[in-house]
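Support request, please re-run this one:
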Amino acid sequence: MKKYVCDVCGYTYDPKKGDAKGGIAPGTAFEDLPENWICPICGADKDSFQPA
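Re-run finished. Output below.
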């Protein structure tokens, strides 16, 4: 699974780790994140992320 980086703040979403703060379980691919998921650091939406 690919990692994705936030263009705004540089946060890296790692599917192996998920996003505990956002209620996303480890093993969740970026493509499977809810459409309303936001960056846990800066609040940017999914459109602000690019493949790492």
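The CA atoms of residues 5 and 12 lie 4 Å apart. The mean pLDDT is 97.
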